[in-house]
């Protein structure tokens, strides 16, 4: 697989001058080749091709759609070595992590292929006619699901495979029957192009209409805005910052014809450790928490950014254990200089707030991309009067909030905004408190955990990776698991259709 520095529009490479480069976060070196910034002309070409081939793609038999998804996975596997090598250069992520993420991406495609082939995702419902019903007859009514149309997908920086060109949003949209136009992430454009080449190879091998997939390369916000505002785009999927997701959401809402934006954005993923769990868990719980904060240099949207505890005699030894664990965490590069810069600024601003004290680990410093975990501390009282403490600082840091009582911990839970996850650590003797806490937290988060840590996100049918705003722009959606397909479908009812006009799934 060779890199060209191109956007790929309906199977064709589109190259102009080299406008931007990927930078190796480990040594700061510029990586070749340079990549051409896509413009409005290419946006229009990609979306027009997607709309042109939409009907042809959505009308394919479901087994053919499923085979296409499987072939994308096979093509990714065929290019595994090149993909992992390039992603390592562009992100600084270690090879085992990238190998595992690519396997997850392939398995995600397989899962959607099986899900589509089964056809149950169409959620068909049939109410047969009742011509003799009194006082009025009932018509024959049949419901199924149809795809929305061309979908714009914005790749994330922190998962160059699983939340990028061939990641979950693309897999879900293609599974639903929607053509996809991906806006590649400028921090790993080479990885984006290689993954796009794999999809294009699958398009050709399976005889899919070429407009079913395009990749737009670019580093400007203008490119993303042009894509979202294009009148033929019918939905948007985004993974990234709250500022970026909200900007796209507002653009889509202000179109003459508004469209849904499914943005997965900020989350601090609070963890609540009840007194019994703190007394019993001790060093083991502290180590697991510190490891969760440090995992992937804190660059997970499920990174635990808040830890709530109740003041107790065991708290000092618990904090000391966290400090010891964080001090031995390896120094590692963040994904790119911009993320490190934002992390350092966010951490410093948080540390300067009233009532915030440094507790453990190492504060971010320097202009390189390197970072290690850190822990700040504040009181439950300060947390309740300063909502900015609960804002996400994307990176390997967390804030321990020491509450005076269980009642204050419950107040803090009530004060939280929407989250992707919320976790409670408790003993069997704390069931009543757990019930109270989970009753509050189920209104705040998309996934609730008991005696675990939120960083891992299983790809399966029952996963919910979403939550109330600002975790996402639509609390009813998920970006992981088969339920993610619902974002790109809408229900349609067919009344009194003769069998000859019914789609296959309604002919019974």
Automatic annotation (TrEMBL):
GO MF, one example: oxidoreductase activity, acting on the aldehyde or oxo group of donors, NAD or NADP as acceptor
Record carries keyword Oxidoreductase: yes
Entry's transmembrane regions: none
Coiled coil: none
Domain called Aldehyde dehydrogenase: residue spans: 18-457
One protein family per Pfam: Aldedh
Keyword Oxidoreductase in annotation: yes
Keywords: Oxidoreductase
Signal peptide bounds: none
UniProt-recorded name of the protein: NADP-dependent aldehyde dehydrogenase
